[in-house]
Amino acid sequence: KTPTKTKTKTPTRVWITIGGGGRTAAFPEICASSRLRQQLIESVLEKVKLVSNTSTGAGAKQQSQRDSFFIGGIDLDFFQPRTIRERDNYLLLLTEAIPRWHREGLKVSMTLHPHQGRMIPPSVYRQLDRIHFMTYDMIGGSSSNNNNNNYHASLGKVRQAVEELLQPGVGLETTPDRCCWGFRHTLGIFAIRHGSRHLVKSTTTRFVFVFVTTRTRTRTRVIR
């Protein structure tokens, strides 16, 4: 009810995440099978249409319209392919799923840990609408050895990880226009700050760092 209420009152985009930390065990088997890949791709669309119909009350005719879905995008989070074969099979899923979901009006993102940029070829980057760069759990630079003060990434380390993703030979460096204002490719970096470990629930503050990149510079916008 809360996402539905929020979306009707504000220009909120609701996405479905597939996978995530501790929830990617099925990816290798699914990606290795053409039948299972297609089954996943189509089942996601069925779920999107079902949720849209339930949340908005839209009829079958309205469901066929590209802008009628309650769900606006799909985020694929297969964090750690363990072998080259797993990586290649994951790329098969991406190259099959992205155009299929795009035809239905859905946006598609994928999640990467820092230093994984070379895992994905430029041809796939060009098809993505977003990249979610998981920099929040990098250990940040600090002069203190206290774990409470050195728990999450510093902004400097986040910027360094983004700049590595833009180096020659990495996918985003060959498609810089897709990372600029006015184009659709955005790097979204989620950062979470914790206070005292005894007061985490009451002091946690969330920030979203959006890096807008060109071939020569990186600009940062912080959304609280």
TrEMBL record:
Domain of life: Eukaryota
Record domain GH18: where: 7-168
InterPro entries: GH, Glyco_hydro18_cat
GO-annotated biological processes: carbohydrate metabolic process
Protein name per UniProt: GH18 domain-containing protein
Source organism of the structure: Pseudo-nitzschia australis
